[in-house]
Amino acid sequence: MTIIVTGGAGFIGSNFVFHMLDTYPDYRIVCLDKLTYAGNLSTLEPVMDNPNFRFVKLDICDREGVYRLFEEEKPDMVVNFAAESHVDRSIEDPEVFLRTNILGTQVLMDACRKYGIRRYHQVSTDEVYGDLPLDRPDLFFTEETPIHTSSPYSASKASADLLVLAYYRTYGLSVTISRCSNNYGPYHFPEKLIPLMIANALNDKPLPVYGQGLNVRDWLYVEDHCKAIDLILHKGREGQVYNVGGHNEMRNIDIVKIICKALGKPESLITYVTDRKGHDMRYAIDPTKIHRELGWEPETKFADGIQKTIAWYLENRRWWETILSGEYQNYYEKMYGSRETLG
Ligand code: NAD
Ligand code: DAU
Fold first, then answer.
1. Is the separation of the CB atoms in 120 and 108 below 8 Å?
2. What's the predicted TM-score (pTM) here?
3. Which residues touch 136 (CB under 8 Å, ≥6 apart)?
């Protein structure tokens, strides 16, 4: 079994690469990643010498390069994590989001059609459903909730989802889609809420909370997301969408306070700043379908997961400090300066 994992040098993709290599010692995992600002090759250092692992620096929009890789590897499955993933960046500059998230998805699926594939899996997000009001705790996103996006990021992810379902219906491509809630855990890029707050708190810097910090996100430990995707790949029904989330809704301000407490930092570091434009109020996943059909359940409780995550950031200071200093971007040259690349 050969699986191409795109975006495997990013947060969830790298955790998925580790999960798959650990769980299936006879699988070949080929990581395709452009190494944008969010891709960090040093994250993959522990598996670089694994004979079942290959890293290829490549843009998913590079049709020629992607086709060449498919010709070489003849993958059985593709899991597409590669994306521009940060909502704030999409508000500043939407274009690259449309290019990577939509057109890149098209290139990958065209390659799947051309060379044949057992399964194409699209890693999507609960943000495609828009948001829920705070005063209706009885409402949740199901797979039937209409697409109703708020940001250029979520619009690009929703567009990709529609394209994936179109390739299923029109060409019979074997596809699945997972729509997950907010992940947290090791290797989370320190521009996102949890790692940013941990890094700033450790450096005694202000903790910028948007608006009043009352927005609610439904947090899932990254390993639980990886296990859900693994199950969908092996047992999910083609053409289906699966929501992934663990009924763990938290207000932003409460998360930031937990982080302050765990690190022994004063709440006076919290600084309320101008709200995000079009800021989604509440996300909440109904995971009934994946539980009922595939038996998936989150294993890590938030109280444990957040302490594990904080401990990871304390133990792996160098990982995020090299990101903050920009030094991590030289890692590719160091590792790959003299090796061949595709595309
Ligand atoms: P990330 O930003 O940490 O990583 C994205 C990775 O994709 C990086 O390694 C980057 O170099 C790579 N990449 C970007 N553009 C590329 C391109 N054109 N070609 C090849 N590689 C490219 O993102 P993440 O948080 O790990 O998210 C991974 C996926 O999961 C995304 O599709 C995102 O929409 C989805 N998702 C994320 C969350 C979350 O909470 N982080 C939740 C649900 C779904
Ligand atoms: O729900 C899944 C989505 O979760 C994924 O599709 C996205 O790729 C991922 O980035 C994440 O999106 P969010 O916008 O929810 O995550 P972020 O960490 O950027 O923000 C979480 C909440 O915290 C949100 O309400 C905005 C707020 N926030 C964020 C930052 C970075 C702050 O208050 N201050 C901050 O500095």
1. yes
2. 0.97
3. none
Q: Determine the Cα–Cα distance for residues 140 and 318; give it in Å rounded to an integer.
A: 39
Flag residues of the chain having pLDDT under 50.
none
Residue 43 structure tokens? 């994250």
Count Cα neighbours of 312 within 13 Å in the Cβ-side half-sphere: 17
Question: What residue ranges define each of the domains in the chain, with the CATH number in brackets?
Answer: 2-185+220-245+284-300+328-335 (3.40.50.720)
The token pair at 152 is 């250029």
For the chain, how big is the Rg over CA atoms in Å?
19
Give the catalytic positions in this structure: 126-127, 153
What lines the ligand 1 site, CB under 6 Å?
6-7, 9-13, 33-36, 38-39, 59-61, 81-85, 100, 104, 123, 125, 157, 180, 182-183, 189
The closest ligand to the CA of 199 turns out to be 2
Residue 277: CB atoms within 10 Å: 11
